[in-house]
Specification:
Layout: E1 3-9, H1 28-35, H2 50-59, H3 79-85, E2 89-93, E3 111-113, H4 121-132, H5 135-152, H6 163-175, E4 182-188, H7 199-202, H8 212-224, H9 231-263, E5 268-273, E6 278-279, E7 285-286
């Protein structure tokens, strides 16, 4: 197979996908392609977090086989390196800190975008602090960040690139590949909290759109005071989550339309999530329980 596309969606729960039985029509494009391919209904993430799950996705081994999850070991081989060495053009597009060049994931790509070149100064500082600071200094900075989210609904220094922009970048790469053997990877962050879906997608599930500020404040309540979350707030967060999924699904559909226009039907598509998301099912919100984590980084 000379054309290969890997699509990964951060924090997408299997039980919010149509072909897995979800009652809401949030993944029509993904469902259409799944109906034409093989579906793996008994697949599991290694752990509910990006740093732990992506070594398995992009290297085929668990992180503990190579000393831990802090970064990809130089002894590990990324799938991009395998394709590149085989003569494929390779392109990777994402905006997740933990699969960036800083963590060793930039090897083997002819074109690699991890949002670092375009991010704001506050976003760069957040990335630097999360990977270079610990102890009291990081705790103080995190408390300030949490306060701004909780009280003001401010999304401080976000480095997540929205799905439509990520799709644009990936399509540009695909259109430039011609007849060359090609491997492309596109990772979407929209389904990861904070949930800030476009208003048009919110209106499919909510009578009135939720402002970004209110969504961010609600996120802090889920993280800090889960026992105080009301039934109405819980449903609002589910609605926002589903709106993000539908937005992301639409962009996956746009990407695949462009891929089939350029590459035809003779390509291999693999689509998965890196992990899901807890909605207070085990007493906490997010991909994993930060209070039980041995890392100094906050949940993300």
């Amino acid at each position: 197979m000379e054309k290969v596309l890997l699509v990964t969606i951060d924090s997408l729960r299997a039980d919010h996908v149509g072909y897995h039985g979800y009652e809401r029509d949030v993944t029509p494009n993904i469902d259409e392609h799944a109906a034409r391919g093989s579906r793996f209904t008994n697949a599991h993430s290694h752990v509910g977090g990006t740093r732990f799950s992506f070594p398995g996705i992009l290297t085929g081994v668990t992180p503990m086989m190579y000393g831990g999850h802090e970064r990809i070991s130089a002894d590990q081989t990324l799938v991009s390196e395998v394709f590149h060495d085989a003569g494929y053009r390779t392109g990777g597009f994402h905006s997740n800190l933990y699969v960036s060049g800083q963590f060793g994931y930039d090897r083997g790509w002819d074109e690699f975008f991890d949002s670092a070149p375009d991010e704001s100064a506050t976003s760069k500082f957040r990335k630097w602090a999360k990977t270079n600071l610990d102890g009291v200094v990081l705790d103080v900075l995190k408390k300030g960040y949490d306060f701004l989210e909780s009280s003001q609904g401010m999304n401080v220094g976000s480095y997540h690139v929205p799905a439509d922009e990520m799709t644009d970048r990936a399509i540009e790469f695909v259109e430039d590949t011609g007849d060359d053997p090609t491997f492309a990877w596109v990772h979407y962050m929209d389904v990861h909290h904070p949930f800030l879906p476009p208003e048009e997608y919110q209106r499919e599930f909510l009578d009135e759109p939720v402002s970004h500020e209110e969504s961010i404040r609600l996120r802090r309540k889920f993280i800090e005071n889960p026992d105080d979350v009301t039934d109405e707030e819980y449903q609002t967060f589910i609605d926002l989550y589903d709106a993000e999924i539908k937005f992301n699904d639409a962009e996956v559909g746009r990407l695949l339309d462009a891929v089939e226009h350029e590459w035809g039907d003779d390509y291999l598509l693999a689509l998965t999530a890196d992990h899901g998301d807890h909605f207070l099912e085990h007493g906490y919100f997010g991909a994993h329980d930060c209070s039980r984590s041995r890392t100094t980084s906050p949940c993300s």
